[in-house]
Design brief:
Enzyme class: transferase
GO molecular function: transferase activity
Protein name: L,D-transpeptidase
Organism: Scrofimicrobium appendicitidis
Oligomer: single chain
Distance between the termini: 19 Å
Pfam families: YkuD (PF03734)
Length: 277
């Protein structure tokens, strides 16, 4: 897990087609209403879908297949919608916790709206019913108005992590570029699997001794514990440098040696990250 600056964080052969559950799609016969325009004040009053937020109205996203992804920045803070496009559930801040332009990854588009992955949770693992047979969602998605998105660019890089093989493989389109042994989550604090997220930010963290190698923060969260690391990590999944970078040893994060981390650090933000068992 990785502690954020000013906050806290945790710790594909193209990934098989991206699915966002419960989203209205026009070819099913569902009529998708056009939401009314929101004022700036209304948008600012919505909860921010940031790395530390828990917003039940977001949609779970668990796909590990390849629908072409597009990277964007935001024109402004923008409203996010769940299955009801007339009722916003959150806002996507135009700038992230580092004060940098937020990286937005779109995975589908329809009727002037784009399905984007978000850095927030929709639920805490501790809030799951005792009888639940599936873990908490590691990744969320929501709909955003296309007019709120700027500077589209195709995302052609992606990372495939195999927890069982303890490997991280980098691809450019469908071409494997490099593969490395890594450390993954221990049995009690597992790395989430069967999910795709993205690289959302990178930063140094002197408090954790990460002054030579930047932490690579993904949009993914722990699925078994709310805060696996030290009780205040937020459950975020990052990739970071560690002297011993193999084995099932972490609190859910990915432990990389210097060579592997340098390769990941060179990838553009927005790069997809697929984790398989």
């Amino acid at each position: 897990m990785s502690t954020l600056v000013g906050a806290s964080a945790g710790c594909a052969q193209m990934p098989p087609s991206n699915r966002v559950e419960d989203m209205p799609v026009s070819d099913t016969g569902i009529t998708v209403p056009s939401p009314r325009a929101l004022t700036g004040e209304e948008i600012s009053s919505l909860p921010a879908a940031t790395h530390g937020a828990v917003i039940p109205g977001l949609l779970p996203f668990s796909q590990v297949t390849s629908v072409p992804a597009t990277g964007y920045t935001l024109v402004r803070d923008a409203a996010l919608y769940g299955p009801d496009w007339n009722r916003p559930v959150a806002r996507f801040p135009a700038r992230n916790f580092l004060g940098e332009p937020s990286v937005v990854v779109g995975v589908a588009e329809q009727d002037g709206y784009v399905s984007v992955l978000t850095p927030a949770r929709r639920e805490l693992p501790s809030a799951r019913p005792a009888a639940a047979t599936t873990p908490a969602a590691a990744q969320t998605a929501a709909w955003i108005a296309r007019e709120d998105l700027a500077e589209p660019r195709p995302i052609t890089t992606w990372i495939r992590v195999s927890v069982g093989e303890q490997t991280l493989t980098i691809f450019e389109r469908s071409s494997e570029q490099a593969s490395f042994r890594i450390g993954v989550g221990a049995a009690q604090t597992p790395t989430p699997t069967n999910v795709t997220g993205y690289l959302q930010a990178r930063y140094f963290d002197p408090d954790q001794g990460q002054v030579d190698h930047r932490i690579q923060l993904t949009s993914l969260h722990a699925t078994e514990q709310d805060e696996p690391y030290a009780g205040q990590d937020g459950g975020l999944i990052g990739a970071h440098f560690q002297d011993v970078a193999d084995g099932a040893v972490s609190h859910g994060c990915l432990r990389l040696d210097a060579e592997a981390l340098a390769e990941v650090d060179a990838l553009p933000l927005g790069t997809l990250v697929t984790i398989v068992p």
